[in-house]
Design goal:
Four Helix Bundle (Hemerythrin (Met), subunit A); 3 strands; 61% helix
């Protein structure tokens, strides 16, 4: 299964073995290919960086895609904050709701499976929780939560963003 999208030597290397045939047969009823695929879904395509962060290795186009999504999320946060300081509460609430909703689960709907396989599981979980919370923030705005409550929700989201930047960074994919 995994060899369809990754060369055998890379799969073996990623699992810590010199040859694909050296992959453990004692994994139980799980097929070796499924075991390796599962390892990638949890670990992603990562290395330990010298700066203490986990480096996620992506192709330049994949890196640009993820960074573009992060910029869209930052613009949504800016839209919420800008709307909170506005004078026209009803019009501003619409702007705030639209900004928050733009970074919700709809943003995550167009999934690139090859890219998702390269991302470590905690990264994916954190990203999905942020998208869900942006939808919840938009719902809270519609239900007329006060600005303090909205800022508390937004603070929870941005705390995860800063945690992500403390834990991870993107590295350029190296040529074999």
């Amino acid at each position: 299964m995994c060899e369809r999208w990754l060369p055998n030597k890379l799969v073996a290397w990623a699992a810590g073995f010199d040859e694909i045939d050296a992959l453990p047969d004692h994994v139980g009823a799980v097929d070796r290919d499924d075991w390796v695929a599962g390892w990638f879904l949890v670990q992603g395509w990562t290395t330990q960086g010298t700066d203490g962060r986990v480096h996620i290795v992506l192709a330049p186009a994949e890196r640009d895609l993820v960074l573009g999504e992060m910029r869209m999320l930052l613009k949504a946060v800016h839209g919420v904050v800008t709307g909170l300081v506005g004078q026209d509460q009803e019009a501003d609430r619409t702007q705030i709701e639209q900004g928050a909703r733009s970074a919700g689960m709809a943003m995550a709907a167009d999934v690139n499976l090859a890219l998702m396989a390269k991302l470590p599981l905690p990264f994916k979980q954190m990203g999905m929780s942020i998208h869900k919370d942006m939808d919840a923030l938009a719902d809270a705005i519609v239900h007329k939560e006060n600005p303090q409550q909205i800022l508390q929700r937004l603070s929870s989201v941005t705390a995860r963003c800063t945690m992500w930047h403390d834990l991870y960074r993107f590295s350029a994919e190296s040529k074999p």
